[in-house]
Amino acid sequence: MEYRTLGRSGLRVSVLTMGTFTFGGKGDFAMVGKHGVDEARRLVDLCIDAGVNLFDTSNMYSTGASEEILGEVLDGRRDDVLISSKARMRIGNGPNDEGVSRHHLIRECERSLKRLRTDHIDIYYMHEWDGVTPPEEMLSALDTLVTQGKIRYVGCSNYSGWHIMKTLAVADRDRRPRFVTQQIHYTLEAREAEYELLPISVDQGLGVLVWSPLAAGLLTGKHRRGKETPEESRQFAGWTEPPIRDEERLWDIVEALVEIGEQHGVSAAQVALAWLLERPAITSLVIGGRNEAQFRDNFAALDLKLTPEDRARLNAVSTIPFIYPYWHQRNFAKDRFSPGDMALHQHFAED
Length: 351
Hints:
Layout: E1 3-5, E2 12-14, E3 16-19, H1 37-49, E4 54-56, H2 65-74, E5 82-87, H3 102-116, E6 121-126, H4 135-147, E7 151-157, H5 161-174, E8 179-185, H6 197-204, E9 207-211, H7 234-237, H8 247-264, H9 268-277, E10 282-287, H10 292-299, H11 308-318, H12 326-332, H13 339-350
Parallel strand pairs: 3-4, 3-10, 4-5, 5-6, 6-7, 7-8, 8-9, 9-10
Antiparallel strand pairs: 1-2
Helix pairs in contact: 1-2, 2-3, 3-4, 6-13, 8-9, 8-11
């Protein structure tokens, strides 16, 4: 297992993180997985044996059941691993059952701690932007939780570029805890993060964790052009994330992944993960699976080294439009690009 430093912190995390989205299986989460305690323990043991040291969950996954199961499975070995959890999403019908208000964050953190059977959460993510609560209030609440020792680091998830920069500016001005990481959706099929989120991460020193790095299984090679959706997949069960806006482009990407995988004697999934691990600012990929075979296959991606020809082909089939103002900056400002700028522009230089 490889370990990378999380942003500008001193924390070292494994390049593969175990996601616990499948723990519990309540409500819509049953489309993805229904792992109980025994199944979860086997998968957690497998990940720990492989060197994974970070386990990711959320207060809203199966309405808290994911945290409860993870807490039970890690009981007695909590100090040997890291846990990340999240708050912001709606978790009830009350007027304060969502958002990042001081009331909601402190209450939800304390509830998560009880479910996880721990006295602290290592990385606490704001799961989504809240345009109603002032960032000053959110950061003040997080400062309280850090001071109390209930959380160690803070991060954001699913923020836009200006949301991140606004929050970082307030944190720096008011000397509040600063985001050290963001958790985003980023794959060969969904490369929008290259416009702002990866450049911001390079420039501002944020670690990047990627959720659903295989696009909910669409990049594993099990889904192919012109073939029926596999019955065991979440898409067959009705899951709709991530949105696919260009199916032909998706299948072109899958075909490239399968063919490159065959050339290396590995799976398409391993190729997709190996590509991500080479991208700017990436710290860790949050992987999930319904069985041990899926996890073992993902672990093997760490041994795969893509060739320049592999990368060029993958970039060619997955390239994103060079939108304004970036084409204009490339025409007139490229001699003064920063490392953050190059997180985007280097891709187009490669092509």
